[in-house]
Amino acid sequence: MVIDEETVTESLHSLDVVIAPDLLARVRRDGRRRLLRRRSLVAASAVAAGSAAVPVTLALRASGAADVIGAASRGGSRATLSELYAPPPAPGSRCTEGGSSAAAPTAYPELLLLPPGQAVTSAVVRAGTSRCRAPHIALTLLRADSDVVTAGVVVAGPNAPSADEDGFGPGSDPVGDTGSLPILGVAGTEFTADGHTDAFWTEPDGGQWHAQVRGLSQQDAVALLDQLTLDSHAGTATIPPDAARGWTIAPAAVDERAGTEGTVMSEWVDGSGHTVELNVTAGPSRVDQEAASARLDATLVTVAGQPGVLLADARTATLIWAPAHDVEADITVNDGTGTEVEQLAASLALAPPSDPRFATG
Questions:
Q1: pLDDT value at residue 98
Q2: What is the spatial distance between Cα 107 and Cα 215, in angstroms, rounded to a whole number?
Q3: pTM assigned to the model
Q4: Is residue 24's pLDDT more than 50?
Q5: Which string of b and e fits 239-278 if b means at least 16 CB within 10 Å?
Q6: pLDDT for residue 69
Q7: pLDDT-derived band at 147, boundaries 50, 70, 90
Q8: Mean per-residue pLDDT for 144-160?
Q9: CA distance 90 to 93
Q10: What are residue 287's phi and psi, to 5 degrees?
Q11: In the 8-state DSSP scheme, what is residue 183?
């Protein structure tokens, strides 16, 4: 029997116990943003020569269509393991796990977004760590029809977790089709469900790579990955111009810092009776990567002039955007609409650390 994240969430809410807010947040987030876990994939995309260093989500909205950007192939000698851009996780690491503890609002004043004048059910400040450092992202590709993302690719490495380390190991019972197609001439492992493929492989130099491909079959996803040129020393994945035709290549993103990071998780009920969940996290924007890897329908939007991506299905609407430098937020309205969640996001404002709402939850 397959139990989806909505069923899990409803079951947790039905229990007559206090559920840690960060547990519910992880369940919700893993369902809506399953492949690009916010704290387990991080990046610097390979950028085509001459591309503007602005988020591709803004570039697509400005052009009204997917741009065709050719990228020159880049060669490079194979690195030894000690020369990799960053080393892979230690064998057997459980990279989907981590820990967190309560933190004072004064520790993260830049994350204290709340709806002005709105009572909240909870507003919790946490400091968290992960078992594995978030991997470098070497390439992000998007294909869009106007503002609607139809396909995407995110390639992480050479320090990406292996399939086992990323939660696809024995006992995980992944939904969909499992493949063993070779990638770039080496053994590969693929997991495909609902048009979304996770591909894992290890290069001869020891670099570990993980690609997420949305909108293509498993075979077509691997065929595209076979066109890449990897440089494990520089941390790049490049694609020849012919293969890049029809794709937009996202600009470079900043690698995430190692160590403890702050997150503020809030929840309230809006005027329509809908439950609203807000997570604000310290770290560089991953809007392009979220748009490229989302499992739900993804639409490119702007919030107060900043790029964002709207994810929606019949039950929820989620908006992910970067409200400030080195800050990313996601807000979800259960049983709400895209318009509603965009309006809520635009209405948020920083609250002072002394705001009594941060004492709740």
A1: 81
A2: 40
A3: 0.79
A4: no
A5: beeebbeebbbbbebebbeeebbbbbbbbbebeeebbbbb
A6: 28
A7: very high
A8: 95
A9: 6
A10: -60, -45
A11: B
The radius of gyration of the chain's CA atoms, rounded to the nearest angstrom, is 20
* Whether 298 contacts 318, CB under 8 Å: no
Q: From CA 173, how far away is CA 3, in angstroms rounded? A: 12
Q: How far is CA 22 from the centre of its chain?
A: 17
| CA dist., res. 62 & res. 56, Å (int) | 10
Of 142, 141, 198, 140, nearest to 169 by C-alpha is 198
Question: Amino acid identity, residue 321?
Answer: W
Rounded CA-CA distance 267/115 in Å is 10
pLDDT at 321 (0 to 100): 97
Report the C-alpha gap between 248 and 125 in whole angstroms: 37
- 276-286 pLDDT, tens per residue? 999 999 999 99
Nearest CA-CA partner of 251 in 297, 304, 196, 292: 292
> Could you write out the three-class secondary structure of 133-165?
CCCCEEEEEEEEECCEEEEEEEEECCECCCCHH
Cβ-contact 229, 237 below 8 angstroms: yes
Q: Which of 285, 272, 263, 341 is nearest to 105 (CA)?
A: 263
Phi-psi region of 151 (alpha: psi -120 to 50; beta: other; left: phi over 0): beta
User: What band does 81 get if pLDDT is binned at 50, 70 and 90?
Assistant: low
pLDDT at position 23 over 50: no
